[in-house]
Design a protein that fits this description.
This protein has about 725 residues and is α+β, with helices and mostly antiparallel strands. It has a domain at about 245-715: Rossmann fold, CATH 3.40.50.1110. The protein is built from 20 helices and 23 strands. A 5-stranded antiparallel β-sheet has the order 1-2-7-4-5, with no helix packed on it. Strands 14-10-19-20-21 form a 5-stranded parallel β-sheet, sandwiched between helices. Helix 3 (about 40-55) crosses helix 4, helix 4 packs antiparallel against helix 20 (about 705-720) and helix 8 (about 320-330) packs across helix 20. The protein starts with a helix and ends in a 10-residue tail after the last helix.
């Protein structure tokens, strides 16, 4: 237990060690400042990366990117850390062992978020305060984070603080005294144990050591002391607990970046392969498939795993990464309580205000959610402490404009009694039960237990039809064989498709949707200051490493014969890449104007960084991460061409492109809308099957891309939350 406490204290006091030791003084920091993570070892991963990145050029503006570069570097994991005194890998594995979590060998190929599993088949969410089965934050337990009551995550009961004497000499006695009258259960902890310890108003330590203090939420302690008999100036200790919420779509949820990649079969393939240049069907070659049983069916626990599978929400999300950086920056006298309901596919309509169909249908889970609670209502329930209990519902005024697509396609049909639209399968009923959908949105109602200090928001892309526009510029409608012509509409129906005219019409209708959203933020989320809503724009995926438009072709998308990118020189089809980019610019301009009109803080400083990192960008000399062609194997052989996808695919490695290709998505997610854990033997040679397997995040930012977005979000958020703190601001 003493060893465990030492490692925890070491993790909590990184920046204290680096302070100059001239005059002795009392200094303190919050332990486990990113409260969303339940275990110290998961927090330690980010603390080490943050501290080791401090000396990197441009750290102030690009701190998340600097952390990401280290977290996904095998060399960093294997090199001694100035903070830990050993390699990051050894430090994390040692602490995981003390936490009774299996200290399995960390494989950097799988990405840092794979460490959240406590054992091979564990859920990623088990290491966080997100209850994936119930879709809420209730009943989280964390000894190191001091979370021990039913709603103790959203509304903290107390915090742990590490106190030390800067400038005190080793071997001398240092005395620390709480001058404020104590409540039972609070004070300095005996032997620094966070459980089963006696609390004291006074403690005596070696001046080179630290003391741990338990302090009630929203309470101030005055702490005085002496070092070697010399009195010390008293300090005020009060933890600022900052509530950060996240709402939005796939660019907010982390789509394209599962916390654990799919497991691919080392030998078996699925046929056919399609030529990277011509798209010709190469029947004698196979491409990667999910790990399989001897009978050919999908092996269990080989699917990509997410913090939340229904929403493809992951720890790599730009919102989450920005929140982590906020927790680690500044004077460290604050903690971050973070609640994200961002969900891939969300619109302001079905997503924020009405139930949304999930990215995956999960059989056998609690309440069998597929259509999920509206994000705004879910956040209201969390802030009011009603999550997980009886639903308290209330109508919210529907102010969508006349002619809004959602009204035309959904609400009007429901008004006529047509319920087929948005109808869920029998095993996955809609929220809050059955298939009920109303013309007015139904949201939870509650009296908030605390304020939302910052709302991170990323929404509007699906309202415009972003994914449908992508489909329009990559879907090859010029099939010549009968089989292809018959199957292409099946994929098109699943992936969608939209014209430039339709996209621009949808942009015009955003005014009504954002007006409705602004009212809900004020009235339902009780945020009086709209500038604390940080809204992120959408970076462009269309440029190569030389800032030129991606050319026509199949590179990065020969997973199916259906895909051919329409470059700027092409005029066939509904849109080409240059035209689509012009519409994306119009979308961002519209969202910027709407943000300004409603007083939101709009973030677009990351746009320029993305101009060399589009979906076709490559740089010579980098290993398999740069490859655009799909790995393949000739029938009757056992050697992979390009690289072995099961062992040499590094989905989170540094690369020039910051967007997922269709080939990336096939290997990284191998997406299934239905239950992804158990699948019957596949129909080999079916082009639509392969096309549908790519729907797990193509043309979405990679982990590097999300880190770049997080840098911009952090800089805007720090001005709101950490103003005046040393090294916290970006300028």
């Amino acid at each position: 237990m003493r060893g465990f406490c030492h490692l925890v204290l070491q993790a909590a006091a990184i920046f204290l060690i680096a302070l100059p030791s001239h005059a002795a003084e009392i200094i303190w920091t919050v332990d486990q400042p990113f409260r969303f993570l339940r275990f110290s070892s998961d927090h330690l991963v980010h603390e080490m990366a943050f501290e080791d990145a401090r000396s990197s050029p441009g750290f102030r503006k690009h701190r998340v990117s600097a952390m990401e570069e280290r977290l996904n570097s095998g060399a960093w994991w294997a090199s001694p850390s100035a903070f830990a005194g050993t390699t990051p890998k050894a430090a994390v594995e040692a602490l995981r062992s003390l936490e009774a979590r299996k200290p399995e060998r960390f494989d950097v190929r799988l990405g840092w978020s794979s460490l959240l599993r406590s054992y091979e088949q564990a859920r990623v969410s088990d290491a966080t305060c997100w209850n994936v089965a119930r879709q809420d934050f209730m009943d989280c337990k964390s000894d190191t984070g001091g979370i021990d009551t039913r709603n103790g995550y959203i509304v903290p009961r107390h915090h742990f603080v590490t106190v030390r004497i800067a400038g005190g000499l080793a071997g001398q006695d240092c005395r620390l005294l709480i001058e404020t009258p104590l409540q039972p259960g609070y004070g300095f902890l005996e032997e620094n144990r966070k459980t089963r310890s006696r609390e004291m108003a006074e403690t005596i330590i070696d001046c080179s050591n630290e003391a741990v203090l338990r302090i009630p939420y929203e309470t101030r302690f005055t702490v005085s002391g002496e070092a070697g008999g010399t009195p010390l100036d008293p300090v005020e200790i009060e933890v600022r607990d900052l509530m950060i919420a996240s709402l939005g779509d796939s660019f907010a949820s982390g789509e394209g970046n599962p916390d654990l990649p799919a497991v691919l079969d080392e030998q078996r393939t699925i046929r056919p392969r399609y030529d990277e240049t011509t798209g010709a069907r190469l029947a004698n070659y196979g491409v990667p498939r999910r790990k399989s049983r001897p009978d050919g069916s999908i092996a269990p626990f080989s699917s990509a795993r997410w913090l939340d599978r229904r929403c493809h929400r992951s720890m790599y999300s730009a919102h989450t990464r920005a929140a982590i950086a906020l927790a680690l920056s500044g004077d460290r006298h604050h903690a971050i309580t973070y609640a994200s309901y961002a969900c891939s596919g969300a619109e302001i309509t079905d997503g924020l205000f009405w139930p949304q169909d999930g990215r995956e249908c999960i059989a056998g889970s609690a309440r069998n959610f597929r259509h999920m609670e509206p994000q705004i209502g879910a956040l209201v329930g969390a802030m009011g402490g009603t999550s997980g209990g009886p639903l308290k519902l209330a109508y919210f005024a529907n102010t969508l404009e006349n002619g809004d697509p959602y009204t035309r396609e959904v609400l009007d049909k429901i008004g006529r009694g047509t319920v087929a639209i948005r109808k869920a399968r029998g095993l996955c009923p809609a929220w809050p039960g059955g298939n009920r959908l109303n013309q007015q949105p139904i949201l939870q109602r509650a009296s908030f237990k605390r304020d939302i200090d910052l709302l991170l928001l990323g929404i509007g892309g699906n309202d415009m039809g972003f994914s449908k526009l992508v489909t329009s510029i990559v879907l090859n409608s010029g099939m010549t064989d009968i089989f292809g012509d018959l199957m292409a509409p099946v994929y098109a129906m699943a992936a969608g498709g939209i014209s430039l005219t339709e996209a621009r019409s949808n942009i015009d209708k955003l005014d009504g949707r954002y007006s409705m959203l602004a009212k809900a933020i004020d009235q339902k989320l009780e945020m009086e200051d709209p500038s604390k809503v940080v809204l992120t724009g959408y970076p462009s995926p269309v440029f190569d490493a030389n800032q030129r438009y991606c050319k026509s072709g199949r590179k990065g998308m020969n997973a199916s014969r259906f895909f051919t990118l329409a470059g700027p020189e092409q005029t066939r089809g509904k849109a080409n890449i240059k035209q689509a980019n012009a519409v994306l610019d119009e979308l961002n301009s519209k969202i910027r104007r709407l943000a300004n009109s409603h007083g939101f803080t709009f973030v677009d400083s990351h746009f320029e960084r993305f101009k060399k990192h589009g979906i076709c960008a490559t740089t010579a000399g980098r290993r398999n991460a740069e490859k655009l062609d799909l790995p393949h194997m000739k029938a009757g052989t056992s050697n992979w061409a390009v690289f072995n996808p099961a062992t040499n695919f590094y989905p989170y490695a540094k690369r020039q492109r910051w967007f997922r290709t269709f080939n990336d998505s096939l290997m990284l997610m191998y997406h299934y809308k239905a239950n992804a854990y158990e699948e019957k033997p596949v129909d080999q040679g079916n082009p639509v099957f392969l096309a549908l397997r790519t729907l797990g995040g193509p043309v979405h930012p990679t982990a590097e891309g999300h880190a770049a977005m997080a840098d911009a979000i952090y800089c805007a958020a720090a001005k709101k939350l950490l103003a005046g703190q040393k090294d916290a601001l970006c300028d």
